[in-house]
Design a protein that fits this description.
Structural class: alpha+beta
CATH superfamily: Dimeric alpha+beta barrel
Shape: globular
CATH architecture: 2-Layer Sandwich
Distance between the termini: 13 Å
Low-confidence stretches: none
Strand content: 25-35%
CATH class: Alpha Beta
Helix content: 25-40%
């Protein structure tokens, strides 16, 4: 299993829209998340920062993440316009993956 923590900055004027979208996620999005091996997926908010955590249980992470992007392309059109990179130097998309420095089960 792979644990993933990521952050992104929320555009202040889009905060309520982003929260509303996630209060009632599209069924095809929640199904795609499950199909692509993601479990225990959470998103937290503090001010303008979003933090997400999930556990990946598959065996082809890069392939499954590409598939997830394809399956959720319409959803991402809605959510991506609400976000901007937390790290302006990030070159791998909006969300910045964090390094895990501690874990206890």
């Amino acid at each position: 299993m792979k644990r993933v923590g990521r952050i992104v900055k929320l555009k202040p004027q889009m905060k309520e829209r982003y929260i509303r979208l996630h209060a009632d996620p599209w069924p095809e999005v929640t199904e795609a998340i499950h199909i692509c091996g993601i479990r225990n997926f959470s998103i937290y908010i503090k001010g303008e920062i979003l933090f997400s955590y999930f556990e990946y249980v598959g065996n082809a992470y890069e392939d499954d993440m590409k598939k997830l992007d394809e399956l959720t392309a319409e959803w991402l059109k809605e959510t991506d316009k609400c976000q901007e990179p937390a790290d302006p130097g990030e070159t791998d998309g909006l969300w910045s993956t964090m390094d895990e420095i501690f874990y206890q089960e």
